């Protein structure tokens, strides 16, 4: 598989990690999930992300998931692997292992101890040096990491750390950050790197309008993100908004802290992507009322999609 580059675009869906009802790793569902995402038209897959329950996996299980996914894809789509760790040694060890297995690149979030602009730059400078020729994604997710990285710092990282090829943009609010980064690269002040956006796709149309190249996030209907990104590529901005609007109520529901991932996995199981919607313990469990909410949203979504011919 070719390595990840600054030219990456489209939808790199964040994969869930399938478990059985009892909490065991479900490798058969990794196969069906990969097939499901590929059929939805995604450009790539990101595994072991924040909503992939990566902290609940052992290192051996993490390797098994990556290996199984890469084997199923057989080079048809690039795979990015989250390798964030408290130290550079475990991060580098996992990164080298997954790249040897055939991954296209890795994703790294800053540790919560990063407080200043200089510390942010120094961390990613160290990451770049440790990874060598391995391309990496800078995950900018201050709502989870509590680390805010200003546009000027990201630009410095891009200028001085050549193997940083992508920004996973999840600042919120953060549309002005995309505008600032694109303005800088347009003036030739820094390289133009790929910007893929997260936050469940909640701001995807606006992010695309600001210069994003696509999405790197999860949603139980990845075809929504594919449809929005493709419509923008075709210059059909209003069509992109129509598609997005049809799915927005369910995407919003997925953003709830606690039960959001459970709702996503419930729908993915209902759609046949995975066998069970269970999360690994400790885990939230959807109540009957939660399930009724989701089913109502699905029914209304189907009606709206039919109305717009999507």
UniProtKB/TrEMBL annotation:
<keyword id="KW-0456">Lyase</keyword>
<comment type="similarity">
    <text>Belongs to the DapA family.</text>
</comment>
<dbReference type="InterPro" id="IPR013785">
    <property type="entry name" value="Aldolase_TIM"/>
</dbReference>
<dbReference type="InterPro" id="IPR002220">
    <property type="entry name" value="DapA-like"/>
</dbReference>
<protein>
    <submittedName>
        <fullName>Dihydrodipicolinate synthase family protein</fullName>
    </submittedName>
</protein>
<dbReference type="Pfam" id="PF00701">
    <property type="entry name" value="DHDPS"/>
</dbReference>
